[in-house]
Amino acid sequence: MEFHERMAIVHADHVFWNPISEEGVQDLIASLALEPGAQVLDVACGAGELLIRLAERYGASGIGVDISVEALAQARRRTSERVPGAALEFVHGDGAHYEPPGGRTFDAVCLVGASWIWKGLAGTLRALVPWMKPGGLMLLGEPYWKVPDPPIAYCEAEPGITPDSYTTLDGIREAAQHEGLRLVYMVGASDRDWDRYEMLQSLAADRWALANRNHPDLEEFLEADQKWRRQYLKWGRDALGFAQFVFRRG
What is the C-alpha to C-alpha distance for residues 127 and 109, in angstroms, rounded to an integer? Predict the structure, then answer.
């Protein structure tokens, strides 16, 4: 089963594919205080919920980019249902290779929980800052280590993750400052938020398994899901945090 197919299955009950609560999302959107008609770019936009809410609240226009065809189909359907007149475009592709048309820049650039696209935080900031207008905003969602010494066993159990994959909470601010960004606002995920995010995935996986008993990938799918739950409960809940930051350029 392809990674993006699995992600769509386990996030079936999630409005946003990250552990920030609904209240926290509303708080972040309010903190942006965009001008009417602001232009927004959302890389790894998923089903487009953030862009749609910004269009609903501020009349924003913009572009969403994602590698999942299924997620983009949802984004286009939701746009037509909720903000049919909004100038929102959804582009299929790998964010790492995306270039805004005509060197276009934006009032706000968003990337939540997908810094792996540019191989980590530093590469992500270097990629996104040139797409921001002077004085523009960045909404960045990023994991961070909650402990000074990340568990080696946790890193070994998660392919592609090392103790250097993430920094501390303040390390994110420092990295952004190095790229000419200053912190404006932040919302972090609580333990309860994390639990709900992880366990909604478990429920969705269980529901899918019951409905697809003869699927050729069923055993592999369930093994992967149980591995993720084990790693979260054994190490991740105590070691890894997640927050969304609002930064201003200049």
Answer: 11
